[in-house]
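Module 6 notes. Inverse folding takes a fixed backbone as the condition and produces residue identities as the prediction. Think of it as a translation problem where the source language is geometry and the target language is the twenty amino acids. Below is one complete input and output pair. Work through it position by position during the lab.
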């Protein structure tokens, strides 16, 4: 049985839906903190059980009978993130899974300037030491982050943010479909995958240019001072810790940590990956 964790989340839910196109429902199980939130999956014949990385004892039943376990990384960083991810890995191994898959990131590195990346790197190292085959899905940077970076650009005509670098913005739907393909074709990748990214990397100046084309207005890229930008976030109610983490993303992109691209995602999909322009079309349509 293939077990998918976080199946009520943005990536996990999409992955299960794509997996159902390839694998019978009775061969799929999900581990979720809120089983009621996965009632639609249960109705389709998917096994739904409660599992919480913060409660390792719950994972024993959630992972029972697993042949593969997809550990969808939690949206946290640091020692807590590593502890929860490794607890899930241990539970998968104890359950007898023949392979553990983990949603990592193309920029996973112990010396990254972006806080989630060292956590991903540490989890990958732990998986490599379990003795059980593993696959680390080196996912591209989520394109869904773009709207969070635009600020008031569509209203003011100015995209104000710290200096940045190119990022291979990648759609959740594409990554979910690719993950389903990998799960259905067990053993396709051993260890870290190549970068699973859109084919091109783009900085915010490029984003502003596309927004201008889509809106028929000039959208000017304005480079903000790091400290002033972060202070502005805090002034608008963003916790200091989160503001610092977001600033770290800009620092990392300047260093080229998210610029890598490759054909692996397109090859898995058997089609072109979603271009960033399509993502921005949705942003513009939503106003």
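Target side of the pair, the amino acids:
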């Amino acid at each position: 049985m293939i077990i998918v964790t976080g199946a009520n989340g943005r990536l996990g839910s999409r992955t299960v839906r794509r997996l159902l196109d390839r694998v019978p429902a009775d061969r799929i199980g999900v581990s979720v903190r809120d089983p009621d939130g996965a009632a639609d999956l249960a109705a389709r014949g998917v096994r739904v059980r409660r599992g919480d990385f913060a409660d390792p004892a719950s994972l024993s039943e959630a992972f029972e009978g697993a042949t593969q376990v997809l550990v969808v990384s939690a949206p946290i960083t640091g020692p807590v993130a590593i502890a929860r991810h490794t607890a899930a890995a241990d539970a998968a191994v104890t359950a007898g899974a023949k392979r553990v898959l983990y949603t990592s990131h193309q920029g996973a590195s112990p010396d990254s300037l972006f806080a989630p990346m060292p956590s991903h790197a540490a989890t990958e190292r732990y998986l490599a030491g379990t003795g059980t085959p593993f696959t680390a899905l080196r996912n591209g940077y989520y394109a869904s982050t773009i709207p969070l970076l635009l600020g008031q650009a569509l209203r003011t005509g100015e995209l104000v943010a710290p200096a940045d670098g190119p990022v291979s913005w990648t759609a959740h739907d594409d990554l979910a479909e690719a993950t389903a393909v990998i799960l259905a074709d067990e053993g396709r990748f051993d260890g870290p995958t190549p970068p699973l990214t859109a084919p091109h990397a783009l900085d915010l100046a490029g984003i502003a240019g596309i927004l201008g084309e889509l809106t028929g207005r000039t959208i000017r890229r304005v480079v903000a001072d790091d400290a002033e930008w972060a202070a502005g976030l805090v002034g608008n109610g963003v916790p200091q810790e989160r503001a610092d983490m977001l600033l770290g993303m800009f620092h990392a992109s300047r260093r080229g940590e998210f610029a890598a691209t490759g054909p692996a995602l397109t090859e898995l999909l058997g089609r072109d990956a979603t271009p960033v322009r399509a993502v921005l079309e949705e942003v513009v349509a939503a106003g």
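Reference fact for the lab report: The longest strand covers residues 99-105.
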